[in-house]
Specification:
Shape: globular
Organism: Rossellomorea aquimaris
Function: Part of the binding-protein-dependent transport system for molybdenum; probably responsible for the translocation of the substrate across the membrane.
CATH class: Mainly Alpha
Number of strands: 0
Low-confidence stretches: none
Number of domains: 1
Distance between the termini: 48 Å
Order of helices and strands: HHHHHHHHHHH
Protein name: Molybdenum transport system permease
Mean pLDDT: 89
InterPro entries: MetI-like (IPR000515), MetI-like_sf (IPR035906), ModB_ABC (IPR011867)
GO cellular component, one term: plasma membrane
Structural class: mainly alpha
CATH topology: MetI-like fold
Length: about 220
């Protein structure tokens, strides 16, 4: 019974960790292109990056089903390579979490990059640093607090993802059931005491993470 109870918590944390790591890599690359290189079409791309913030979860779930469904080229390729569909799997839960957490991660990383003094970056290049070395040794360290805050925000958002996950990954006990979907099932089944337990875990984790972010923000302003 304890194993059944803790599985959604463990899966939610695992999914949130993987989603935060993937979103961080994507956010750093996207923010670098937007802020550091000023690439063409940045406004259009940035709009695409932020769309998951405003789209209903049902729309995100529908789009994921369309892109990765068994009748889509992507879905058929995945099934051909791995011998199974990505739908209703842990990988689907991770993909949904990445989609919803990326915008928050991107915004925070972008803010950190934008605050880096360009004169410092220019001085490092004058001293012989390549664009990559200047980025790795100067920009990233100077923007690290914003990046860490972005990771916390992205992780928290991924931890609480529900709508797109329910449609794309499903709610299979012992396989794809997360905290959010477990709460939904508990309420539907009239097990309010179980719903409260999962809600308490979710609130506690989110509070700790947001408190940590606030503390880091306070340090940044000093």
């Amino acid at each position: 019974m304890n194993g059944d109870f803790f599985f959604p918590i463990q899966l939610s944390i695992l999914v949130a960790c993987i989603a935060a790591a993937v979103s961080l890599i994507l956010a750093v690359l996207a923010a670098y292109r937007t802020v550091m290189t000023g690439g063409r079409g940045s406004s259009v791309l940035e709009t695409v990056y932020l769309l998951p913030l405003v789209l209903p979860p049902s729309v995100l779930g529908f789009l994921l089903l369309f892109v990765f469904g068994m009748n889509s080229p992507v879905g058929q390729t995945v099934e051909l390579l791995f011998g199974q569909t990505i739908l209703f799997s842990k990988a689907a839960a991770v993909i949904a979490a990445v989609i919803v957490s990326f915008p928050l991660m991107y915004q925070s990383v972008k803010t950190g990059f934008a605050e880096v003094n360009r004169d410092i970056v220019g001085a490092s290049k004058v001293d012989g640093a390549s664009n990559w070395k200047a980025f790795y040794h100067v920009v990233l360290p100077l923007a690290k607090q914003s990046i860490v805050m972005g990771v916390i925000l992205g992780f928290t958002r991924a931890l609480g993802e529900f709508g797109a996950t329910l449609m794309f990954a499903g709610n299979i006990p012992g396989k794809t059931q997360t905290i959010s979907t477990a709460i939904y099932v508990a309420i539907e089944s009239g097990e309010s005491h179980l719903a409260w337990k999962y809600a308490g875990v979710s609130i506690g984790l989110s509070f700790l993470l947001l408190f940590l972010m606030k503390w880091l923000d306070g340090r940044k302003e000093r």
